[in-house]
Amino acid sequence: MVLPASHVVVAAKRGGGGVFLYVRNLQKFLYNPIRKMELNLLRRGIESATNDISDQQRAYEGGILLQFIALLLAMAMLAGLVIIAAGYRQLAKMQQHCDSSLECLVEAIAKEHLIVGHLLDALPSDFEMAYQVQLAEAFRKSDNALKKLRSDSSNRTSAKALADEQRQLLMTSTTLVKRIEDNDVLSHHGSIRGCIKGLADAQEKSHAAMVSYNLAVISMATHRELAIPSLVCMIVRAHATHRPLIDWTPDSSSSSVECDY
């Protein structure tokens, strides 16, 4: 508390007596109602100003916190969109690889069927007629199954039918080729020998295409089981990514192609 200068001067000039006067003036100053009211108003003004400054500071800090949270949410959403887009592109790429492998498989089987037809045309009609009829029937069924698979590549029933008919075609053609090789005349016939060699090459290529296709299907199915790709499939409803296995190797069970990937 700072007293008026006149009070201090009086106290200094009058020595000891000034002490009494200083105390008396101090009492009058402190107990003056108007002064007391002024002091209260001043104190309240200072407290109010201090509270306003604190409220403004808290509001400012709260605004900064909300902006920071909003920025984090925006970054998280952006990162999620980037991850989903990358996962979708990867699934699309793997699906395209499966489609390409299936096209190669269909083309290889078609070439094999073409050579089987040429072989049947080159053989004498009276040579092993029963085996020729069996091969012709197997060829017809396998060709029809191939056409059905072309129209609906994701149909598990069509894939199983093609695998069964190709297996039957392979066993029947192998039996007839052995009969031809045992015949001294036909085994040295130029066109027939060419058909046999071409058929062996076509069967080898179609088998390699089958293996390549199945590997592509299994790889895509394994990838789809991961967390992010499975989430992407749920979001974009990528049901078209399912592809059936196709396997006509003689030692494979027919149930092996029933797995829908």
Measured by DSSP, the beta-strand proportion falls in: under 5%
What's the CATH first level of the largest domain? Answer: Mainly Alpha
Secondary structure category: mainly alpha
CATH superfamily name of the largest domain?
LemA-like domain
Please identify, by name, the CATH architecture of the largest domain: Up-down Bundle
Q: Report the uncertain regions.
A: 1-16, 254-259
Domain count: 2
Sheet with most strands: none
Net shape: rod-shaped
Taking all Cα atoms into account, the compactness measure Rg is 48 Å
C-alpha termini separation: 89 Å
Q: Which sequence of SSEs, written as H and E, runs from N to C?
A: HHHHHHH
Helical region count? Answer: 7
CATH topology label of the largest domain: de novo design (two linked rop proteins)
Please give the number of β-strands.
Answer: 0
Architecture overview:
Helix 3 packs antiparallel against helix 4 and helix 4 runs antiparallel to helix 5. It is built from 7 helices and no strands. It has 261 residues and is mainly α. The longest helix has 90 residues. The relative contact order is 0.10. The chain is 80% helix and 0% strand. The radius of gyration is 48 Å and the shape is rod-shaped.
List the helices and strands and how they pair.
Layout: H1 5-13, H2 15-30, H3 33-122, H4 129-151, H5 156-182, H6 190-224, H7 227-236
Helix pairs in contact: 1-2, 3-4, 3-6, 3-7, 4-5
Question: What's a quick, concise take on this entry?
Answer:
The chain has 261 residues and is mainly α.
What tags apply to this protein structure?
7 helices; 261 residues; disordered N terminus; 2 domains
